[in-house]
UniProtKB/TrEMBL annotation:
It comes from Synaphobranchus kaupii. This is Spondin-2. Keywords: Calcium, Cell adhesion, Disulfide bond, Extracellular matrix, Glycoprotein, Immunity, Innate immunity, Metal-binding, Secreted, Signal. Its main location: secreted. SMART domains: TSP1. One of its GO terms (cellular component) is extracellular matrix. It comes from the Eukaryota. The keyword Disulfide bond applies. GO terms for biological process: cell adhesion; innate immune response.
Amino acid sequence: MWKQLEQQTDVLAVSVVTSGWRRRPLCRPRNSMAKMADVHTRDLLGWLATLSLICGTLAMPVDVDPECSGGTSAKYSLVFTGKWSQTAFPKQYPMYRPPAQWSHIIGVTHSSDYHIWQRNEFASNGVREFSEKGEAWTLMREVQAAGERIQSVYGVFSAPAVIGGTGQTSSEFELFTRHSFLSFIIRIVPSPDWFVGVDSLNLCEAGHWKENITLDLFPCDAGTDSGFTFSSPNFETVPQEKVTEITSSFPRHPANSFYYPRLKHLPPIARVTLTKVKSNHIFSLPLESTQSNQIPIGNEIGDSLINTPLDCEVSAWSPWGLCWGTCGEPGVRHRTRYIHLHPANNGAACPALEEDKTCDPDNCV
């Protein structure tokens, strides 16, 4: 079975899991497939297509959530907008090796008894590998296992990476009445183990499919790496900590790349917009990063960028130096400090870096 499924690279699958013992995979043949610019992306999307087919062909009796009465299924478009700019997040903003950017999106549609990740819970090995390295294979196997074990996963989807801190990427996905929840995860690149995403968003409200939803996204820490900055070397967290939201004051350490003590709240680092599509025909998994998926920055993004003030940060004073001067006259001691972080966006200017005080000259006879 696996060998046969792995050979189906020309079939794009969307699975439908119905109640009880019924099941029916929905597949659409594709006459030709464009060559992928990146081999890893092609392998991942092939796995996603295979996984969607597997999730739809399982035949296990399950406990189901109440149905959404607004139709048996609904199709949505997802637009992810990166708002990670140097003006909104000036502290240690990554400019090179690598510059600020976003990974591809891994999304899952599922029932209420499944979570790809959760705040205040431990991240799985799959989430660890994805948030630290951008590797999705273990995460995909975990999704597959959940579908096989409790039939909670309806489908999976992806969207191309955003090559820049600001920009957009998009995808489409389908929900079913008993699988009306959406979860997804996107890695912040570069970072120790930071990501943004949505956990178990129910798109069926009061028995009807929601039409439009816009959510601001904020950075999360997977709790698996103890690095404080975007470019920190690997530093495993032992023991592992739970997933937490990063704020302007947590972690409370001046070295943290998101530490802005003057701010009550961080500005959103990203935004996602979900729109219900009228047509419910079967859709294709995104195959490659095209211009339609990588939308250039326009007024919608640029006009909403925030200027976050960044105050100057300086070191502690050095010890006072020796007292220099002529015997019988007042001498002078000198001490210095240096700049840790230059101000930006009208932040507080740097204080004096040198200081003198009078003293009695040393070793005067």
